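Contributing: when you submit paired examples, paste them exactly as shown. First protein:
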Amino acid sequence: MEERLQKIIAAAGIASRRAAEEIILRGDVTVNGKRITELGTKADPERDHIKVRGKLINPRLSRQEKRYFLVNKPRGYLSSVSDPKNRPLVMDLIPASERRGLHPVGRLDFNTEGLIVLTNDGELTRLLTQAGSVPKLYEVKVKGTPSEEQIELLRRGIRMDRSRTAPAEIRLMSRTKKGGNSWYEITLREGKNQQIRRMFDSINHSVTKLRRVRIGHLTGQGVAPGQYRNLKPGEVKKFFQTPSNKPASRKSK
C-alpha cells in the first residue's frame, strides 16, 4: 500500500514524522534511485526501494511486528492519522504508545459510527479495501419509508462517480413508530465515498444514522463505542483463508 514517505520513515524508527519531512526536503531520501524532495510523495515499502542517506530502510519495516486493532468509532471522529483542523481522530481512541506506524483501513465518515481496523499491515489493508473481497455490514436509519421499487433500484446498483455501484444486499429491519422512519441492514462489497448516504439521497430518503456493524467475520461484540480490542492471530488469518484472497507469497504465522 502506498503511503507518504514521511510516514514510512517514521514507521521505520529513523525519525519523527516532522523530522522525516526535513530529511526529505534536504534531499536525503531516494525511491528506486530517484531523489525525492517533495513532501506528500508516496511509495509502497513492499515494492519500492526506499533509502535514507544511502541506506535501505525496507528491512527495518519488514522486521516490524504486525499489529491489529478493531475500533468501534463513535460519531465525531475522523478516520485519519492527522487533521489540519485538529478534529478528533480515530487514532486517539487507542493509547499513544500503540499508534506509531498504524493507519485506518478504509474510511468511515465523520458522522458515521462503527467498526474500523487500525493496522500497520499493508497486505491486510489491500485485502480489506479491495472491491469484492470482504463484505461489510451496515445498519442505516433513513427518513421516511422508501418504496420496494426504490429499494430494488439500490439493490441492483445506481450510477455514481461515472460508474455503477455493485449490487447490494438490503433488508428492511424495522420502522419507527414516531416519525415513520426506517431502519435497513445493508451489505456492501465495495466502498465508494459516502456510498450509502448518496444511494439513499438518490431516492430522496436521506440517511439520519449510519453504523458499520461487521467487517467480514469481525463483529463489535464486546467493543462499546469509543473502545477497541486487539485482533487475535486467528481472526487475521481467517481473512486470507478464502482461496481467492490468499496471496501466494504470504507465510503462515
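Second protein:
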Amino acid sequence: MTEVQTQANDSTIPAWDDAELSGLHENDEKAVKVQAMFNAIARSYDLNNRVHSMWRDVAWRKFAVKKARVQPGDRVLDVACGTGDLTQAFGRGSRAESIIGLDYTEGMLEIAEHKRGKLMGELSGRISYEQGDAMDLRFEDESFDVVSIAFGIRNVQEPSKAIQEFYRVLKPGGRLVILEFDQPSNPMVRWFNGFYCGKVMPRTATWIARDTSGAYKYLPRSVTSFMTRDEMKSCLEGAGFAQIGVQGLSLGICACYDCVKPHAE
C-alpha cells in the first residue's frame, strides 16, 4: 500500500498541507487526498454544513430537486452524495422510482446509510447507496432520467471526465443538475463571503470537527480556484449538453446549473 493510499484510510494523517493548496486542482493525488479528507470529517459534516451555511444548504438542495423536474417513475443518480442529504431530498420531493446515491468515500456512505435507516419504509426502499468513482460510473449507457451532483464536482480529479460520464448514463432528454459554490458578483458580498469562508469558517469548522486533515483549509481554496460559470458552461457544452442554464442562489454564494441531454436528430 502506497503512502497516499494509507493516508486515505487513516484520518490522523493530514490530507493537505499548506504548500499543496496552491495547486490543489492540478495535484495528481487529489482524488485520494479528498477521500482521506472526507473520511476524517464525515461525522461532523452535516453539522458544519448547517451551521456555516446558516441552514441555507437545505434550501439549495430543495431548489436543485425542483430544477431536476423529476417525473413519476424516473431513475435518479446522485453523484458525490456524501451523507445523503440531496439523495433524501429527491426521495421526499419527488415520485422517482429509485434514487441511487454514489460516493467515493466510505466514511460518508456509512453516515448516509445510518440516516436512511431512520426513514419510513416506502421512502427508504426507493433509496440505495454505493461506493463509486464519478469518472468511471459502473452503469450502462442511458440508464437514468436525472443525474445530480451537489458541492462535489470541484472535488473530482478530472471534472470534465465526470461530466462526460454523466452524459453517457443519462437517457436522451435526461436532466443534469449541478450545485456548486460560486463567487458572488457584487463586490461587497464577494468581500464578505471571502472573509467569512477564508478566515472565519476554517477556524470554527476545524474546531467543530476536531479536524487534522486540512479539510477546512482545502474547501474554501477549492472554491476560489475552481471553474468560473463560463468555464463550467463551456465544459457542459463540450460534453454535449444543451439548454444550459445557471442561477445564482443566496446572493451568488451558490450556483445551480441545469442542462439536458438532447435527443438524437
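If you have annotations for the second protein, write them as plain sentences, like these:
Residues 1-11 have pLDDT under 50 and may be disordered.
Residues 173 and 261 are 5 Å apart (CA to CA).
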